[in-house]
Design goal:
The protein is an all-alpha fold. The protein is built from four helices and no strands.
Length: 114
């Protein structure tokens, strides 16, 4: 009786498990999920917020050179995202403003870092 049950159980598992696996594979999508764009999808607001956070983090007792370098890095990231995501006259206006900010940050680095 136990031997017969064991044989029936093994046969059942041998028939059902591969069939269920094949059904699951056929039911899953055959195409990958679409990739999100790196800079534009999350928006320039996130980059601007990160830059604002870097500015707010500056403390009088903190290393001024490091703070200026971090601020410069955030400015460059925002400028790159602006250059690739915005079109038209707003793009040129924003790039001009960001270029001036980058130049000022670069001058600050030159003044505070050895």
């Amino acid at each position: 009786m136990v031997k017969r049950f064991a044989i029936a159980f093994v046969t059942f598992v041998a028939l059902i498990v591969p069939g269920a696996l094949m059904a699951a594979l056929l039911a899953s999508p055959a195409y990958p999920a679409p990739l999100m764009q790196s800079g534009c999808a999350r928006g320039l607001g996130a980059d601007a917020a990160a830059m604002h956070t870097q500015v707010q983090r500056r403390h009088p007792d903190a290393d001024t050179c490091s703070a200026n370098r971090l601020y410069f890095l955030e400015l460059v990231k925002v400028r790159a995202a602006t250059a690739s995501c915005i079109e038209g006259p707003a793009r040129l206006r924003e790039l001009g403003r960001l270029d001036a900010d980058v130049a000022r940050a670069n001058d600050a680095i030159a003044a505070t870092c050895n």
